[in-house]
């Protein structure tokens, strides 16, 4: 794997840290800007709003910009957003700064995934993309706990300042390690939007929103579940979340090779196993050791959805994959909001603290049904080939010989 993937992983590490560190610093932020803790929690929603809006908007605005230059511009905006968050003097400006910090999130992952896939052979594209995602999972193990501890000891502003420093380091790594990748002659916002009209792309985005909503229905209420049902102290929940991050990291390492080998079966298996794990968690959450094991496994299974969905969208929008790849992260943030909302509804209805796990399992099964529908619609067609080169990039490539086979419509038969 080329060193340029390290630079992309550093970007993902910074994004993962700034996205989740806020949740651990809500009391300090509330005191710092003189609001209640629930009001301070709205800055988490502000960041998510920035992601949902920024992913398609910034990707469209940069549709003709070479990928490396676009990565640098987006990372620069990420640094500015976190510096503004660290310096915000009041709640209103902090809210605006978190929207600004979230704007480049989806576009960075979308452009980064396309860049990563072009750095390797097509049969290793998913592994390359998963290496970028590895930075996001490591952030849950190292970045978020470290940022939370820094914010609790020195003040919440220092956590955002530290993320800004990570962004500057990522900029330096991108400049040094990522090669120039020109855009194709047809590159442009209309070209990207035409690719988004593909019914498989739209179905893939809906699959991500619904299916991954099952993961967030559980994750959003994991801490109160642990404290109320498992008996873990508040101070120990950070270690459990880090354990969850370990599972995500291991799952990401496995997801890349599996997706390269069998994309749709990996996606089907991810949803089915996630549903089974969430049901299991519902019954073992009151027992410490089994609960910790299932929580770790659940973290790993989330990666078996993330990487396949990302590659599926890039495959189906192969002529203009950047917008589809970026929109995937808007979908994940919508899943975050929707899953948390549904989980909160069943708790408020008196179903108990563990009830979000069953909501999550139901959503994962619906995600499986949607993914299977996409596979059914592909039936009879030639197996999808991941074509991630820019339009026109294959102009001078030597034509491949047509395989001699008894079934010319599908040479894989």
UniProtKB/TrEMBL annotation:
<feature type="transmembrane region" description="Helical">
    <location>
        <begin position="266"/>
        <end position="285"/>
    </location>
</feature>
<keyword id="KW-0472">Membrane</keyword>
<keyword id="KW-0812">Transmembrane</keyword>
<feature type="transmembrane region" description="Helical">
    <location>
        <begin position="158"/>
        <end position="179"/>
    </location>
</feature>
<keyword id="KW-1003">Cell membrane</keyword>
<feature type="domain" description="Major facilitator superfamily (MFS) profile">
    <location>
        <begin position="4"/>
        <end position="379"/>
    </location>
</feature>
<feature type="transmembrane region" description="Helical">
    <location>
        <begin position="200"/>
        <end position="219"/>
    </location>
</feature>
<protein>
    <submittedName>
        <fullName>MFS transporter</fullName>
    </submittedName>
</protein>
<keyword id="KW-1133">Transmembrane helix</keyword>
<dbReference type="InterPro" id="IPR050189">
    <property type="entry name" value="MFS_Efflux_Transporters"/>
</dbReference>
<feature type="transmembrane region" description="Helical">
    <location>
        <begin position="128"/>
        <end position="146"/>
    </location>
</feature>
<dbReference type="Pfam" id="PF07690">
    <property type="entry name" value="MFS_1"/>
</dbReference>
<dbReference type="InterPro" id="IPR020846">
    <property type="entry name" value="MFS_dom"/>
</dbReference>
<dbReference type="InterPro" id="IPR011701">
    <property type="entry name" value="MFS"/>
</dbReference>
<feature type="transmembrane region" description="Helical">
    <location>
        <begin position="70"/>
        <end position="89"/>
    </location>
</feature>
<feature type="transmembrane region" description="Helical">
    <location>
        <begin position="95"/>
        <end position="116"/>
    </location>
</feature>
<feature type="transmembrane region" description="Helical">
    <location>
        <begin position="359"/>
        <end position="377"/>
    </location>
</feature>
<feature type="transmembrane region" description="Helical">
    <location>
        <begin position="291"/>
        <end position="313"/>
    </location>
</feature>
<feature type="transmembrane region" description="Helical">
    <location>
        <begin position="334"/>
        <end position="353"/>
    </location>
</feature>
<feature type="region of interest" description="Disordered">
    <location>
        <begin position="390"/>
        <end position="413"/>
    </location>
</feature>
<feature type="compositionally biased region" description="Polar residues">
    <location>
        <begin position="401"/>
        <end position="413"/>
    </location>
</feature>
<dbReference type="InterPro" id="IPR036259">
    <property type="entry name" value="MFS_trans_sf"/>
</dbReference>
<feature type="transmembrane region" description="Helical">
    <location>
        <begin position="239"/>
        <end position="259"/>
    </location>
</feature>
<feature type="transmembrane region" description="Helical">
    <location>
        <begin position="42"/>
        <end position="63"/>
    </location>
</feature>
